[in-house]
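Input record (one chain):
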Amino acid sequence: MTRPLALTMGDPAGIGGELTLRAWLALRARGPAFLALDDPARLAGLTHGLGLPVPLVEITDPAAAAGHFSAALPVLPIRLAEPAVPGQPNPANATAIVGAIEQGARLALAGAVGGLITNPINKAALYHAGFAHPGHTEFLAALTGASNRPVMMLACPALRVVPVTVHASLRNAIAQLDTASIIEVARIAHAALRAQFGLATPRLAVAGLNPHAGESGALGEEESTIIAPAIARLRQDGIAVTGPHSPDTMFTAEARAGYDAAICMYHDQALIPLKTLDMHHGVNVTLGLPIVRTSPDHGTAYDIAGTGRADPSSLIAAIEMAAELARGADRP
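The corresponding structure, as predicted from the sequence alone:
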């Protein structure tokens, strides 16, 4: 029997609970099966308040999830310290939020679930409660003992992007950029595209940093001093890689047909084109972990929490991609 996936609660003041319920409604008949690491009382309150016909079943063993999934949403309980109020993050519930992530990582490491999908968290709320990591990705790397640098890929049917620098100001991102980081991120992306996405010969396109990829040095020298040496080394490794490409033209439909993933220099260079192309089906995939981990490409959306207006498309895409990657990881 295919192993179920595990889905964390995220911030209980955000839209994660509604997304979980709507994802079950969409997937109950066809799968993939997943279990919710969440507070059953919280989810029951949402089903009533939002008028969503989602029966719940508490389980203690992840193996039971698949047998229940078509009839009810399986919930492995993680109890909240205080009732969640939509739109109002509560530091008292930080232990439960973190506990759901920890439990999901343990289950995935043990092979009890095929992969982990994380609902959005509010990092600032967790920082006030003593959370010591920049975000989900770094926390999961620590929990799983990852030997590689964790790398974020954003993927939708039209595009895959991998930023070399992530959550840093633009000024700091440019300062952090170096040849070794580009090489490391590209190698991890290349390996994941082969092992998990099933691409025999992945094609990478590397973005420039400056307008027009530096215009032969007239608009900046990073392309020649930092990026081009990385590309040369990757080619020596036998990786099919091109660039540095002008960032303003490399995301057209014609350009995207020539590569399988774009290696981008900073956060917004990667996320703006992906979210413009397909905001509702973008998935955050963490590469370099010993487990499969995906998440939707949006945040907690406190402004619409509890209103019934949350769109589950990105979470559903994240669940489906986690199942696909889990099958890839299970291939010999």
